[in-house]
Amino acid sequence: MRIAFDAMGGDFAPEAMVDGTLRAAREWPDTQFVLLGVEDEVKPHLAGELPTNVQLMAVTQHIETDEEPVKAIRRKKDSSIVRGCRMVKEGEADVFISAGNTGALMAAGLLVTGRLPGIERPALAPIFPTLTQKGMLVLDVGANPEARPEHLEQYALMGSLYAEAVLGFERPRVGLLNIGAEGGKGTTFTKEVYQRISALPLNFIGNVEARNVLNGDCDVLVCDGFSGNILLKNTEGVAKAIFDRLKKEFTRNAITKLAAAILKPGLKRFATEMDYKEHGGAPLLGLQGPVVKAHGSSDARAVFNAVRQARLYVEQQVITRISDELNRLEGDEHR
Amino acid sequence: MRIAFDAMGGDFAPEAMVDGTLRAAREWPDTQFVLLGVEDEVKPHLAGELPTNVQLMAVTQHIETDEEPVKAIRRKKDSSIVRGCRMVKEGEADVFISAGNTGALMAAGLLVTGRLPGIERPALAPIFPTLTQKGMLVLDVGANPEARPEHLEQYALMGSLYAEAVLGFERPRVGLLNIGAEGGKGTTFTKEVYQRISALPLNFIGNVEARNVLNGDCDVLVCDGFSGNILLKNTEGVAKAIFDRLKKEFTRNAITKLAAAILKPGLKRFATEMDYKEHGGAPLLGLQGPVVKAHGSSDARAVFNAVRQARLYVEQQVITRISDELNRLEGDEHR
Predict the structure, then answer these.
(1) Is A215's CB within 8 Å of B267's CB?
(2) B121-276 topology per CATH
């Protein structure tokens, strides 16, 4: 297996990307790792000799976090993001992982790697932390903000297959993000999606309200990219605000600092559970080849987790399964 | 001033409703309070003689939390919710407050109290807690899940006027909930809303991302009812999940319990800040008369806060101001 890596993307790049890759290279000596990066920037972090299964591939351009995605991938054809997506397209890599500009990665995935035949819109599918510690795959969180009902039908299918093959859920419970729990609730849009998903051969459990996401009420949550993005960012924002505010209370004086020190192991355990980075990256489901978005604030550990997940994504041949399932359903319809 | 009260709605009704009303009646002896409730259920909580400014008005029906809103208000015309909305419509009360079935209250507001001329869709506008402790008015959170851009334009106008008159914000900063910070981000829908609000005589600060809501990045946040509902329920759900989980860590053993006891005042202070109930109720903006939704889990204190806010809503003549502003803008357009 050959994994291409964006050495340039993410808040702690290139250092965290390099460290994570080297760690993964030691863990999986049978896997080839290709680091795509600007030589002058990456080299200083490659102390000593490279493991035989790691290779640096020089690129000359870098897409910044705040660049306009489509313009960036058109102008910077020799950036790590465009090169990585092309490697997957051309079979030079089995999977590409990047913690860089999310919009640019989605655009390159769509325009360079390309859609899987039969899929109308790819979806970005991160794993949300849940109190059950099993996590929940949520799709789409913004690859396609103006979704149509048939897109969400395909998300349900792709998400279920991925959750089963890569995340280890048995008959994943698929839920629809909605503003009421009972069937028949919501908008014209969600009502149509509900009907469509009901007709699929999935373990569809119906509507799930936003208040129950962290409880892990389902394993795969389907939503349009606009709502999904609101959900993702709000969850991150509320958790961050609460932890920041708690810190203020805990460091108020010497006594509270002492008390907080006693509670620290428990708080840390909880913070780890709530950490996106523990769960690996977010696949861009619906492309012809595996492209995975790692969290922007990925450290070496997050990179390592993303590799573990990406390996399963490839090994389990999820994309072939999605393609087969689409053909099978298509066949059923025409019978 | 005459305030009508739904004694039957909310998790702690009728007791909390009665207690809150009696407390408010003592605080504001110049205000008349009308408790709408089923006599047999409310009477036991009215110990001793009623203050001269509190009156029990008997109704014979009650709309439960899980009833289908429109059916319920059609079938139960002698329920507290329908009677209260009618009192406002007919000038028998200056404002109606209910902690009952939200959907039924919205339906009764729309169908019984009626829309303000010129307003296409009323909006439910709760106050979100913020780390700045000033709160943020968010509208709409579900009165109108299938909003059109012109509806959000009216929300911006109504929300700004309400936030200035009732919540004390000077030139309230109006933001648009969106999935990117820069102008031009988002969907066709949000782009059109952005243009429309930009053209209004408001302090519009542009897009606000869901991750920044608790930071209080704006004073009035405008969104469609579907996204707003997701935002509201997710915020509640994430906060609840985190506090529940912290409780588990804090009560793990005798030592952590002791440490938690030391931190308790700070945690309590924070929990109070984050408590919706501290901020009063959510007006249904865009109706001909003031109707206020109090939180379903309202206790006597929340009821009291809702009264304080409702009094300002009436005194500041917010509805007249909204109506005048609509006419003025209409006039400008036709000039």
Answers:
(1) no
(2) Isopropylmalate Dehydrogenase (3.40.718)
